[in-house]
Amino acid sequence: MTNTEFELGGVCHLALVCQDMERTVDFYTNVLGMKLSMTLSLPGGGQHFFFDMGGGQFIAFFWFADAAPHAPGIAAPAAIPGIGREIASAHGSMNHVSFKIPLDKFDEYKAKLEAKGVQTGPMLNHDKSERGISLEDSDSTFVKSIYFFDPDGILLEFAAWTRELREDDVAHAPRTADGGLGAPVGAAAK
């Protein structure tokens, strides 16, 4: 067990907000193949639907009649990583949802998404290079991924681990609110 305080079993669910629940159901069931597992009606006409991501984990969506509009570049990334350069989003926002996939299914799943009309970015190798990602595989690559948007502009990722994470993978001091460096953590603290 890696958590000494709480026995956590991973993500129970992520709760996001959609503009059109019917379109969301179509995308997550027909494009991504998830099972719609629970639908709830909320006071005021709202809805809350749950989709099974696998492994006992769910992604859930709210629909609210009076929700504010999508705000790319503020509340969510404005571009697909590898296509555009704007992955930043505001403090407190949800940047993206990453779905774990088998490494040997990577090319197949990218082709399936594209066959269903979903624009994907290039395969990215997350590594210890200066940018943190590259188009080329290297000894420091730890996960491969592709990114794409759902119909509401929520950034999604299919990610495949390429190796186990090690203690020396924690080597950077965290930034403070003013951009300075905080106390070193992990291997950097030694």
Structure description:
With 190 residues, the chain is an alpha+beta fold. The chain folds into 2 domains: 65 residues, 2,3-Dihydroxybiphenyl 1,2-Dioxygenase, domain 1 (Roll), CATH 3.10.180.10; 84 residues, 2,3-Dihydroxybiphenyl 1,2-Dioxygenase, domain 1 (Roll), CATH 3.10.180.10. The strands form 2 sheets. It has a 5-stranded mixed sheet, with helices on one face. It has a 4-stranded mixed sheet with strand order 1-4-3-2, with helices on one face. A hairpin with a 6-residue loop joins strand 6 and strand 7. The mean pLDDT is 86. InterPro entries: Glyas_Bleomycin-R_OHBP_Dase (IPR029068), Glyas_Fos-R_dOase_dom (IPR004360), GlyoxalaseI/FosfomycinResist (IPR050383), VOC_core (IPR037523). Keywords: Dioxygenase, Oxidoreductase. It comes from Rhodococcus tukisamuensis.
Salient structural properties:
single chain; 190 residues; alpha+beta; 2,3-Dihydroxybiphenyl 1,2-Dioxygenase, domain 1; 2 helices; oxidoreductase; Glyas_Bleomycin-R_OHBP_Dase
